[in-house]
Write a structure and sequence with these properties.
Elements (H helix, E strand, L loop, with lengths): L37 H17 L13 H4 L1 H24 L4 H27 L6 H4 L23 H5 L7 H22 L3 H22 L7 H5 L3 H33 L4 H19 L1 H9 L10 H21 L6 H31 L13 H14 L2 H8 L8 H7 L13 H22 L5 H20 L3 H34 L11 H22 L7 H26 L9 H4 L4 H9 L8 E3 L1 H10 L5 E3 L3
Antiparallel strand pairs: 1-2
Length: about 650
């Protein structure tokens, strides 16, 4: 055995499995395929002795330091033919005279020939990194079986012209080189195995290819960890490792290990048992090492840590491994590699459990929230932003969640939930997101109930409706602008938009009813100047009080804010305008006329248009307010210029 050359990385082209028998397999029929005669045996011995001794790796000639297959492909073809014929000659000699001197010669020649092929096999494996790199050929088009005749394209043999024409003319240079190398490896392996020297061939193959696979994983950043070392790691470090692992695993499985499997299957296609044994020793340890990180993560996250936000990296892991499962099943498809598939299936189960635990922890967080902090102006609560951000992010993982949540139906009053939510009919009947839709709808319902509880903490009823309006609008807007819309459906949006309108109506009643009722009913008799003056004063006081209170409130969404202001103005301004136009003329002689009619209808609209920015636009002097409250005199109200 020659000294090992520096090994290379990665493995074969995806087209490997499509390559049929090697070029040498289609050699013209040997006369020894027919009934052997003494003369045929002697001719085979003579031909074999000439070429085998020429390429004896222990000789002192130049052939000791050069490669037969690289030096002359025509001579390499002849070498293989002579070795095969030598094997048949040996069978003939054994049947005729097992103690023949010629049999001893044949055995010696066979040993030299196998030594030569072993050296060639090793050199081809160790010096053709580029042509056995899966990345160089995995994306290329399938090479037809006839392309193996490309091995002889440089030859001038007329006998081969017809065979060469059968080769695909569109094959790239990379594919040609890859097919050439793989053809050489396959024909050498077949020849050595058929001659009883498979052990030597397999030893070289496993030694080189295992080092290549191990080096490939190392270059991808796949490391071994001890449990104690891993469990001390900060989650931030693990997040980064998980992100890198997902990228590395895709290459490791679909390119490195899959390519190695294709190469192994191709080279040892004549013996499934040998191919399986080789790949087992090359890839088993690599497969177990590759999936060590997600296994440790799944085990680490099995117990709740009150960090439900970690669910997203767990789902990334689960999705990545699930996507790779068809390749994993194909690559590790025999019993000796069952431990790798068992590990992956166990890991997926643990990840499922961890993800479900995170979801339960998230729901508990909603129910247990007891924070008393509220926005004084009734704005969007911090909990609303974080909760809806989390739920909308969950919706992006609907496929993963549906797989998991199908196994964990909700333990709640389903009729209650169904009255609140009807899962939409999905366009793609093959995608079952129902379980995910139901769970996310339940999370939002639980959260809205929590918002109702928080709204009760406001002393002012109108402010509690502003709070509910802002927060429900944020929830609805989040659903409408995310994947949640597809999961919850238009019916959910319609119901909650109706609820928004209900909150707006209840707010108007709570905040502005006193202003409306301060005006006389249309059915009442005509008022005297004194009564009209009193009504003006009462309206001014009611409006000023409502305005000052409501102008400190905030409506976050511009469209919602404008719609609410328009709705209030439509109810209030026409009523006041009618009263103003009817009674203001009779008060012209009143010395307080300017005060009494300071709220002209047009001014009223302007004041209303400035509501819900969180800061009062009108100011009421403390003296005027105190004076009015104690003696029913008119508020002095002025517009603050900005």
């Amino acid at each position: 055995m020659v000294k090992m050359a520096k090994s290379v990385t990665f493995s074969t082209s995806s087209s490997a499995s499509n390559l049929s028998s090697p070029s040498f397999a289609s050699l013209p029929a040997s006369p020894l395929n027919q009934i052997f005669s003494q003369s045929m045996m002697e001719e085979a011995l003579e031909a074999a002795e000439s070429i085998i001794k020429k390429w004896d790796p222990n000789s002192q000639s130049y052939t000791k330091i050069i490669s037969l297959f690289r030096h002359s492909r025509k001579e390499a073809k002849e070498f293989i033919r002579c070795v095969r014929d030598l094997r048949k000659a040996m069978h003939f000699l054994v049947s005729q005279d097992s103690k023949s001197d010629k049999l001893v010669l044949a055995q010696n020649l066979m040993q030299i020939g196998m030594s030569t092929l072993e050296k060639e096999f090793f050199q081809i494996l160790s010096s053709n990194r580029d042509h056995l790199d899966p990345e160089s050929g995995s994306g290329q088009s399938t090479i037809s079986s006839n392309s193996e005749f490309e091995v002889f394209m440089e030859h001038d043999d007329d006998d081969e012209d017809d065979e060469l024409k059968k080769a695909g003319e569109s094959i790239s240079q990379v594919e040609k080189a890859s097919a050439l190398v793989m053809s050489d490896l396959k024909v050498i392996a077949e020849t050595m195995i058929s001659c009883g020297y498979g052990k030597e061939c397999i030893k070289s193959y496993k030694l080189i290819r295992k080092s290549i696979v191990d080096e490939g994983l190392h270059l991808l950043g796949i490391e071994k960890f001890k449990n104690s070392q891993f469990h001390k790691m900060d989650w931030g470090v693990l997040e980064h490792m998980i992100k890198n692992w997902i990228k590395a695993a895709k290459i490791g499985v679909t390119t490195l290990l899959r390519g190695e499997k294709l190469l192994c299957d191709h080279v040892f296609s004549t013996s499934i048992a040998i191919g399986q044994s080789c790949f087992n020793q090359i890839a088993k340890e690599a497969g177990l090492n590759l999936f060590m990180l997600p296994e440790l993560v799944a085990s680490k996250e099995k117990k709740p840590h009150h960090h439900h936000e970690r669910i997203f990296k767990l789902m990334d892991l689960y999705a990545a491994i699930s996507d790779l499962w068809p390749d994993i099943e194909l690559i590790f498809n025999f019993d000796s590699l069952a431990s790798v598939k068992t590990l992956v299936l166990s890991m997926l189960k643990k990840l499922k459990d961890s993800i479900h635990t995170c979801l339960k922890e998230f729901e508990r967080t909603i129910h247990k929230d007891s924070s008393k902090e509220l926005s004084p102006e009734g704005g969007v609560h911090k909990l609303t932003r974080t909760t809806m951000s989390f739920i909308s992010s969950l919706s992006e993982y609907s496929r993963v969640l549906s797989e998991i949540l199908t196994e964990h139906p909700l333990k709640i009053n389903i009729r209650l939930l169904e009255s609140y939510f009807t899962a939409p009919i999905l366009e793609d009947e093959h995608v079952n997101n129902h379980a995910c839709s139901v769970h996310l709808a339940w999370f939002i319902l639980a959260f809205l109930c929590k918002l109702d509880t928080k709204a009760e903490s406001y002393d002012d009823v109108s402010l509690s409706y502003i709070f509910l309006l802002n927060n429900l609008h944020f929830v609805v807007d989040t659903v409408r602008s995310s994947h949640l819309k597809n999961l919850l459906g238009e019916d959910w949006l319609t119901k909650h938009e109706a609820k928004l309108r209900s909150y707006a109506e209840k707010y108007e009643v709570a905040a502005w009813t006193n202003v409306l009722v301060s005006l006389p009913a249309k059915t009442s008799s005509k008022l005297s100047p004194e009564e009209a003056s009193t009504c003006f004063k009462r309206f001014h006081a009611a409006f000023a009080g409502a305005y000052l209170k409501q102008s400190s409130c905030v409506i976050v969404d511009v469209k919602l804010r404008d719609e609410l202001k328009v709705s209030i103005a439509r109810k209030l301004v026409p009523e006041y305008r009618e009263f103003y136009e009817k009674y203001s003329p009779m008060l012209r002689q009143d010395r307080n006329i300017e005060m009494l009619v300071s709220f002209k209808p047009d001014n009223l609209e302007n004041y209303l248009s400035d509501l819900f920015h969180g800061t009062p636009i009108l100011s009421v002097s403390s003296h005027s307010a105190a004076s009015f409250l104690s003696s029913s005199s008119c508020f002095s109200i002025r517009c603050v210029k900005h």
